[in-house]
Design brief:
Helices cover 62% and strands 0% of the residues. By secondary structure, the protein is mainly alpha-helical. The two termini are 26 Å apart. The relative contact order is 0.15.
């Protein structure tokens, strides 16, 4: 649930930044790329159900 909330909030941040940079297309591309990278690194740190990562508790 935490990752879903984080993703929805992050989408709001991306939309807000893109609307501010509406006249600067190159800045929109750059900010989208940068925010996407930040999201990719940060979403793994957001706790999932009971604070476990998807790999924990799986038996092979």
């Amino acid at each position: 649930m935490g990752k879903i909330v984080f993703t929805v909030l992050w989408a709001g941040v991306v939309i807000a930044v893109n609307s501010v940079l509406d006249d600067f297309i190159w800045a929109q591309y750059l900010s989208t790329f940068a925010l996407g990278g930040i999201y990719a690194f940060t979403v793994d740190k957001v706790p999932g159900p009971r604070g476990k990562s998807p790999q924990e508790g799986q038996s092979l």
